[in-house]
Amino acid sequence: MRSSLDQRQFSSILVVGAGRQRDWLDALLKGGIKRKIIYSDIDVAADVDLFCDGHELPFVDASFDAVVTTAVLEHVLYPEQVASEINRVLKVGGLLYSEMPFMQQVHEGAYDFTRYTLSGHRRLFNGFEEIEAGMVAGPGTALVWSIEGFVQAFFSGRRLTRIAKASSRLCFFWLKYFDYLLAKRAAAMDGASCTYFFGKKIEGHVPDEKIISRYTGAKHLRHL
User: Fold this and answer.
1) Domain 2-136+193-210 has CATH 3.40.50.150
2) pLDDT per residue over 178-191, tens digit each?
3) Half-sphere exposure of residue 119, counting CA atoms within 13 Å on the CB side?
4) SS3 for 40?
């Protein structure tokens, strides 16, 4: 994404659901170029410039050159509405980078609502022409998540649960490194732990048929 920002001289970026990502995102997105980056979130513990709800972003239409949102949309009540707001505040031709989990256990308690396949991720942002999309973390990472959840299910109480979590991670962390071997395999995409979508805002929408044709997994079914 940084290279695309540099090539197009984009100057205004909105981070939706920034959490405490400012330090490393500043270095990644600015790259020595003077850019205005606005960090936003609803979490009072977040390091942000603005507290606001992604369902109703307090910006006029076409305010930004780019939007970044990572591990956020699984926690909102209405992902389609947040995606629509992101589309609204971006200029035509503006860039979007989004990361969302697919095969992951619940990781924010009662504030964890939704999971998307890569095809679902694409369709959520069908107002964007895809530049690149794929796997952030694969089935190895998904397996580690699953084992951790399995082990924790046998315990109750915060202390025992934390011990179970730490023990399972210590014993099975190495499984995630299989993702490097599986990165180019079609079947791995069907079990990805997390996917990303990088796109450019267009006028109109990408047809569903085109989104379906971009499927890159192993289960190629033919529906009449």
Assistant:
1) yes
2) 999 999 898 999 99
3) 17
4) strand
